[in-house]
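fold-stage: in
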Amino acid sequence: MRGHLNKSYPAFFIRGLSGDYMDSDIFKDNDISFFDSRSNFNKRIPFKAYLLDGEMCGITKHTHDYMQIWYVCKGVCSHWINNNEHRMVKGDLFVIPPYVVHQMRKIKDEDVKIIGIEFSTEFVSSEYDDFTKNKGFFDFAYLEPFLVSKDMVKPKLVLSHEAQMEVEKLTMEMLKEYDSEERYYELYIKANLLKLLAVIAREYAKSPKDKESDEIFDKYRNAILNSIQYIKDNFTQDLHLDDVCKHSMMSKTYFCYVFKNLTGKTFTEFHTELRIQKALELLNTTDASITEICYSVGYNDVTHFCRTFKKQVGVSPRLYRKERAE
């Protein structure tokens, strides 16, 4: 069902709607459209996945009785909630609980790509299919950070680089399973959905809570993303924090703060991880000696390289290659 909220609606829609999740004022607004689970989900499971490539839906004020997650893979778009605009760029995500009014708008001349995930609570647990009556369960589960009143809904979440990679992987796998409907696709989707919610909840817990922090992230986010690419392109070189700060044109204090929050790692940790990952690749795919690999990934001292490798991987480079060969 899609329609204006002042019109008739099915009985299940009005059942048990006392509580923070439902704002009775939305019934009075003729311009708000309502989407219900029964007509939105047309497969055997109350779940939907889709890719918006250059297109945009939800451009009018609307609400729905199911959860909605949108992840921006590319470009820029505008998310309106509580009459405030929030620009979303690649790596941003939002989670909208049931009965919250919002809308999306495309930015002129911007090519945007979005993965959408929608699901009813019954898909997470059939015993808890009513948000308003069973919030106690979710206080200790995946959805608790997102089940808040309309004034507390987070309009966007800035994901760390590590979380971006995980979210893209999980959502693309769900999209593939949803489209293919291969045997046991429901289990694949549910497993990935639970993991996705856990990843988002973890990011939500460590995201900036105040306006000043949000402004810092918005201002320097692109600079940090460019710096990440710069590090990836030059990690085998004698790269220092000062070099990257100059490249990003940021002070060391701001750079370290925003970089850690976006990637979950310090510059040194991120740089080291790239080098060790490359060393693992070379150990697996070439016959190069440990010394040659040490120098090729940017280290000038074999002892230091082996010590760092063992700290990261758990075994020495020589033992790692031997075990992989066996």
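fold-stage: in (second)
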Amino acid sequence: MTYDFYFHNDFDGRAAAAVMLAFLRTRGDEVQEFHPLDFEITSRWPTMRFPRPAAVFDFLYHPRAAFWFDHHPTTFLRKSWERAFVPTKSHQLDPSARSCCSQVLRALERDFSFRPPRHLRELARWLDIIDGAAYRSPQESIDLQNPAIQIMAYIDFFARRKKPLARLIRFLSQHSLAEVARLPELRKFLPRAQKWKREGIQYFKRNLQIVGRVAVINLAEREMPLDLRFFPYQLYPSLLAVLLRKGKGGKKLSLGFNPWKKTSWKNLNAAEIMRRYGGGGHPGAGGALAKNEQDAERIGREIVQLLNEQFTAPHRA
């Protein structure tokens, strides 16, 4: 059978796709098209028509998908879908999973008797670190000597340009991270990433605004090819949250809590905060898309005020 893959437009979505691709090939199946997805498609997603059997990873629930795996608790666009949802081998939601990649790996092992090779276990381990914000330190998140971080930087850069990176997904399904990082296109990309890291660090140092225990930075006027969202915690270890504004007009808002101070925000949930503004995510990180620049500014102010009120409020045990 031939499938089309639909996945969240990031490393985790592509890594989950790579694991599924490796499994499907053991059955003699193949994939024809790879479609990266962002939440701009939300309004059209319920009526999406799939020309071939679809496998959806790390993205919103769709009842007509042949395979669907997600770990976001805010995955259901329609209450009727949520009420009717019954987990099966092919349709699985696991909010406890740190990454969709490891979720898919475990599901295929458990329910389809898949025996993943060592390189896929390595991939899943690193996606749990990357997508689950389980880095040992802020420095590790931007360590461009690490093949996993090199690949993440490469994907983040081309994901902004809506590139599916099908060749990369196929390589991830067959090779170790170190081998993938030696691909000519990644070796060519690395010096650029190192330059962007130096420039990005300087930009953050100049433009980061500290409001109480929250850091805010507007990246709308500057393309930031490297993900530096954890860098503020290196500069200011006492911070509890970072709010980024990205995209044209700064309409895309991204909220993340300090993963090294979880006890300080354990009563808050980024996904629920961003759900108020039409977004979603995980307890530790979430995002939303504002209508326009003015709306983004209003949402940003409200979030910062809410967080600082909660950070200073006494919590009952």
